[in-house]
């Protein structure tokens, strides 16, 4: 399976999409590069929630491996997301190219780091890693498959997943989230929200007994993506997702001009709700002198 990421992760194909080596290589050849920012934490969360699910072809009895390929330092908390995966028994290999942060790669990767962290100076040099990485991956799968299986699968179902996300009381700078908790209350919830057109994701961590949250200090007239992710000691439930736009800021109305003289005029208007100041600009028409 493969996902690309920038500020918004995108699944290119699931684990169940192809069944032969030739099909996978053809898919790689047809892959279109996705430019943009480097939100590695968001990408790792996407892989956990979307790509390592039975619906996407993940088999509960199979070993779970994630290979992260990045050429930059993450613009969000990659370590926190990586720790969630590692706590669930998912092994992470981190491969850096060019401007990747070596310290971050070592934080994100699983132990032992001498087998799971790689860094090369440029993309063509990645080919030098293929044979070694292939041997290491195969060896790790064999080693891990002889261990006892985990008591709790990574995913999910209604027992571990909240439902019915409702977004209400939307204003120009806030909104209220509420959801129905799963049958088995989680240890905590991770609520992640960010503008759909790109922006730094923000995260709030709630106790598992809480099932609502007020988001504040948002940007007006902006579409936000919201995820509510239940986290257990040994599993992560399916996340809820929602999309809502904040309202535009209110505008002044009914502009009136009075008390005209040869060098002055009086302006009046109906107030804009919530405004603390007004900026008044005037210039001579049509070509205008200075404002």
Short description:
By secondary structure, the chain is an alpha+beta fold. It is built from six helices and 14 strands.
Number of strands: 14
Count of all domains: 2
Low-confidence stretches: 148-156
Biggest sheet, spatial arrangement of strands: 9-8-11-12
**Separation, N- and C-terminal Cα atoms:** 58 Å
- H/E order of the elements? EEHHEHEHHEHEEEEEEEEE
Global outline: elongated
Instruction: Tell me the strand percentage band.
Output: 25-35%
Which architecture of the largest domain does the CATH hierarchy give at level 2?
Answer: 3-Layer(aba) Sandwich
CATH domain class of the largest domain: Alpha Beta
Structure characterization notes:
The chain is elongated. By secondary structure, the protein is of the alpha+beta class. A hairpin with a 6-residue loop joins strand 8 and strand 9 (202-207). A four-stranded antiparallel beta sheet has the order 9-8-11-12, with no helix packed on it. Strands 3-4-5 form a three-stranded parallel beta sheet. A three-stranded antiparallel beta sheet has the order 6-7-10, with no helix packed on it. The protein contains six helices and 14 strands. Helix content is 20%, strand content 27%.
List keywords for this structure.
Immunoglobulin-like; 27% strand; alpha+beta; 20% helix; single chain; four-stranded antiparallel beta sheet; 291 residues
């Amino acid at each position: 399976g493969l996902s690309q990421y920038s500020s918004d992760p995108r699944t290119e194909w699931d684990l169940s999409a192809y069944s032969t080596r030739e099909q996978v290589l053809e898919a790689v050849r047809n892959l279109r590069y996705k430019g943009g920012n480097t939100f590695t934490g968001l990408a790792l969360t996407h892989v956990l929630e979307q790509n390592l699910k039975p619906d996407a072809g993940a088999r509960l009895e199979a070993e779970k491996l994630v290979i992260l390929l990045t050429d930059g330092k993450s613009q969000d908390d990659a370590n926190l997301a990586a720790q969630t995966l590692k706590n669930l028994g998912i092994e992470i290999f981190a491969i850096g190219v060019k401007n990747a942060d070596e310290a971050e790669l070592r934080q994100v990767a699983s132990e032992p780091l001498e087998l799971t962290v790689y860094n090369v100076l440029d993309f063509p040099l990645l080919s030098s890693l293929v044979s070694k990485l292939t041997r290491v991956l195969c060896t790790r799968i064999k080693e891990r498959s002889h261990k006892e299986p985990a008591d709790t699968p990574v995913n999910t179902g209604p027992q571990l997943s909240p439902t019915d996300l409702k977004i209400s009381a939307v204003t120009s700078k806030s909104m209220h989230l509420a959801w129905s908790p799963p049958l088995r209350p989680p240890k905590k919830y991770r609520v992640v929200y960010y503008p759909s057109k790109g922006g730094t994701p923000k995260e709030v961590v709630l106790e598992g007994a809480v099932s609502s949250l007020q988001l504040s200090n948002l940007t007006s007239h902006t579409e936000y993506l919201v995820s509510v992710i239940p986290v257990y000691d040994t599993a992560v439930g399916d996340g809820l997702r929602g999309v809502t736009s904040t309202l535009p800021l209110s505008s002044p109305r009914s502009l009136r001009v009075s008390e005209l003289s040869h060098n002055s005029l009086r302006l009046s208007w109906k107030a804009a709700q919530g405004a603390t100041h007004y900026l008044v600009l005037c210039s001579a028409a049509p070509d205008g002198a200075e404002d």
